């Protein structure tokens, strides 16, 4: 099905799985889903909470391995608010990927869809290959309809308050999609989405991404319990 919208991925909308209208309407009707966030408009503090939701969908703590969806233009009960879905709104939603607040940048698609007889803005967020993903340096996660912040165990001498989901959840985020990780040797396989031809031929220091080195390799490349 073709639809008008903006792609947050370099390869276009076809590279990100998108739901059918029937599936989206069914998700709207489920109040307990951890794959759905509903917003009546995109004003006030909504742009911030929407980015928190996108970050949580990208982290995919429940390990659904399918996109989470942010709806803009619907009420909490799933009924359309009737607000117009303008090109400016779609551009603002597409900026969630590119404004630098969420790192690494999420893979997402923004589209206008006709749901329950009204136009609704839809943002589909694909789970990240190499979590955790951070919004303004914080790791947002979601279980059921609740959203929270993951914390590391033992940070601040054990005095840092953990999220409502318990401590150590950011460590759990590292495990589901890093299938090539060898914890005994400390070797981490680079996810396929992060590979390039230069990686296959052999890379130089100029090809090294500082963020992935500091946040992904440096934090996970040394086995726990080893000197």
Fill in the keyword field for this structure:
single chain, globular, two-stranded antiparallel ribbon, 6 helices, 5-stranded mixed beta sheet, disordered C terminus
Model description:
The chain has a 5-stranded mixed sheet with strand order 1-5-6-3-2. 24% of the residues lie in helices and 19% in strands. 31% of the residues are buried. The protein has 227 residues and is of the alpha+beta class.
The secondary-structure element order is: EHEHEHEEEEEEHHH
Strand content: 15-25%
Please tally the β strands and state the result: 9
Mean pLDDT metric: 74
Molecular shape = globular
Helicity range of the residues? 10-25%
Radius of gyration: 19 Å
Largest sheet: 5 strands, mixed
Structural class: alpha+beta
Structure summary:
With 227 residues, the chain is α+β, with helices and mostly antiparallel strands.
Per-chain topology:
Elements: E1 5-7, H1 21-28, E2 36-39, H2 46-59, E3 68-72, H3 87-98, E4 102-103, E5 107-115, E6 118-126, E7 134-135, E8 139-143, E9 146-150, H4 169-173, H5 197-201, H6 210-220
Parallel strand pairs: 2-3
Antiparallel strand pairs: 1-5, 3-6, 4-7, 5-6, 8-9
């Amino acid at each position: 099905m073709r639809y008008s919208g903006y792609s947050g991925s370099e390869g276009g909308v076809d590279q990100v799985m998108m739901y059918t209208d029937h599936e989206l309407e069914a998700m709207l009707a489920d109040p307990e889903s951890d794959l759905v966030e509903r917003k009546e408009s995109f004003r006030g503090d909504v742009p911030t909470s929407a980015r928190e939701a996108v970050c949580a969908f990208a982290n995919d703590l429940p390990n659904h391995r399918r996109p989470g969806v942010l709806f803009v233009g619907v009420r909490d009960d799933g009924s359309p608010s009737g607000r117009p879905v303008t090109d400016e709104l779609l551009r603002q939603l597409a900026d969630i990927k590119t404004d630098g607040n969420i790192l690494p940048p999420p893979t997402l698609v923004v589209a206008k869809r006709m749901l329950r007889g009204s136009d609704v803005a839809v943002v589909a967020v694909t789970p990240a290959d190499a979590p955790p993903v951070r919004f303004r340096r914080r790791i947002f996660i979601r279980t059921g309809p609740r959203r929270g912040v993951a914390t590391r165990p033992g940070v601040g001498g054990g005095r840092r308050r953990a999220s409502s989901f318990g401590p150590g959840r950011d460590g759990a985020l590292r495990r589901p999609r890093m299938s090539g990780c060898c914890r005994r040797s400390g070797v981490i396989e680079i996810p396929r989405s992060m590979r390039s031809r230069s990686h296959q031929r052999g890379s130089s220091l100029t090809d090294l991404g500082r963020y992935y080195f500091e946040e992904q390799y440096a934090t996970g490349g040394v086995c726990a319990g080893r000197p």
